[in-house]
Amino acid sequence: MTERRIIPIAIQAAPPAGPRVPQLTASPPLALYIHFPWCVRKCPYCDFNSHAVRDEGIPEAAYLEALIADLESALPGIWGRRVHSVFIGGGTPSLLSPDGLDALLTAVRMRVLLDPMAEITLEANPGTVEAGRFRAFREAGVNRLSLGIQSFDDRHLQALGRIHGSAEARAAAEIALAHFDTVNLDLMYALPGQTLADAEADLATALALGPAHLSCYHLTLEPNTAFAAHPPELPDGDLAADMQDHVESRLSAAGYVHYETSAFARPQRECRHNLNYWTFGDYLGIGAGAHGKLSSHAGILREMRHKHPAAYLAAQQSGDFVQERRTVSGAELPFEFMMNALRLNGGFPLRLFAERTGLPSEAAETGLIEARRRDLVTIEDDWLRPTDQGRRFLNDLLTLFLAD
Prior knowledge:
The chain has helices at residues 60-74, 98-111, 131-140, 154-159, 166-179, 196-209, 226-229, 237-253, 272-278, 309-314, 333-341, 350-357, 367-376, 388-403, and strands spanning 30-36, 38-39, 51-52, 82-90, 113-124, 144-150, 182-189, 213-218, 257-260, 263-265, 282-286, 291-296, 299-305, 322-328, 348-349, 377-380, 383-386. Helix content is 37%, strand content 24%. It is of the alpha/beta class. It is globular. The longest helix is centred in the middle third of the chain and has 17 residues, at 237-253. Helix 6 links the parallel strand 7 (182-189) and strand 8. It has a nine-stranded mixed β-sheet, with helices on both faces. Strands 12-13-14 form a three-stranded antiparallel β-sheet, with no helix packed on it. Strands 15-17-16 form a three-stranded antiparallel β-sheet.
């Protein structure tokens, strides 16, 4: 394409011959997401459902009790289905006591059909790391750790409001790698005052540690954050693009597969839980503000738990932890599927669309794909995948979509 044009975002109606009611023939893979909403301190860029710990501390026992009650109330919707992955996110779940985490995972195993080889991920921040704590988490059943490093530079960590310094970041990564076979390191770039050399140095430090997985995110100013209210001075678009190009080329040269917009992994070490999201699998979400997507013969249901921790804890009295619940219409499904699946750089087989939406493959010709096939999508052997231009466009679009 030689000239620039603006592509309107519109969800077109499916072809008249295609059914508008999803007709699923099999359940998608199922994952479990558990949200822990507390942090030591709220970072100024963070728009997740996280809350700084107050003087009274974390009501760990009450929250674990609520999580287990929430899971039990959700069991009829997933009865008999195998759970392939568990992801404990936040917030800072590594603030949980080892005994508390052990009790939580024991409760999960006693109530759901958990795959013996399930990937069980825990998010952690370097400021909450102790070798004994990580050892106990591993013994409780966690087999994958995702560590929020963000940067190895003290100046940038301070600008981001992180509670750890560069020395703690390195030590935490080394401790994690000593206790877990699979470790993800989160890095951010296009930080306030960051130069290309700074970004290169952060990546070089991460690579020297040798993690199986790296998540590299462009810092964005999200609505309703401290950074949105008081924006810092960020690198311009050209410099940020140079940083992204360096990340992609350097990690490729180091043998990492760039399998998703912001995710890089050693071969066969991709995050299975996140891949389930991008391939439109199902997931039960429990915990304050957790989202879920569950498929059945009746259609595809989306849920959100009560968002504020106090409201979530209070919901245990009624036994109804769900704040919002809606059925996804057939008209929405093509767009929802593509918004997820086109984050995969390798693309997806066209048959997956029918399997996961219950709509005929022809319905994939609507909306995002039909409007952008010539410019943003190439087709090879019934696979759809975004080009570089399409991947960046969809990443920006998803950011706006999730912030809405």
